[in-house]
């Protein structure tokens, strides 16, 4: 497999020097892994997973420290410096990630957090990023069905909810009613496809959709009651935060689960507590 600049690669140690080891990167030649990044016990002939990028002198180098995102991925990162070249973002490596002025949708200021797409400049082989992300998403028909589990990145907050990047390929919307806990821009989490609209737009949920999400926590509630001696103050009047802290679901889902358990005569409900029968 070809070695990819800006991504994780598994490479073989072929040479050892006082300052580090060299890895076989096939068509890219031998790439240095500095000694400070060497895993304990690494020897010639061993394979090691590294991230390959260009150092401050634009020379290929590798590291066992991994960035917050790789080439071909989206990430919400914070600008740590701005100069005459562009804005530089912290992405978890010693060399910050450049967003040139030409790739800024709006002028970036130091301290701002922006959703970026990271890519490899084919001319310079430099890893750079862009805030012009809209045209990079929804370029194909979404392959999802309602209920599918997906990976999402929380983007900008709007007047109806949060814009989210789905699987680094599509835009989605997480409405406030389905965001039952505090979210931060750039957070990576798991979501579920709630609805695919006729115009192709995708609505998301942080929990499984339909009755399945209720069914999945019924045993959790009963186990929790056993652990609490058969009683719990987490009634249907409890705060959403208290419910989420224990069961990781919304208050609406929790109330439906309590109703199902009550109907099956597995719990008793009062204003002060729930009791296992």
TrEMBL record:
InterPro entries named among the record's database cross-references: CvfB_fam, CvfB_S1_st, CvfB_WH, NA-bd_OB-fold, WH-like_DNA-bd_sf
Organism phylogeny: Bacteria, Pseudomonadati, Pseudomonadota, Gammaproteobacteria, Oceanospirillales
Source organism (scientific name): Marinomonas pollencensis
Residues in Conserved virulence factor B-like winged helix domain copies: 219-274
Domain Conserved virulence factor B first S1: 5-64
Pfam families recorded: S1_2, WHD_CvfB
Gene3D superfamilies: Nucleic acid-binding proteins, Winged helix-like DNA-binding domain superfamily/Winged helix DNA-binding domain
Database matches in PANTHER family: CONSERVED VIRULENCE FACTOR B (PTHR37296)
Family in the record: Belongs to the CvfB family.
The protein's name in its UniProt record: GntR family transcriptional regulator
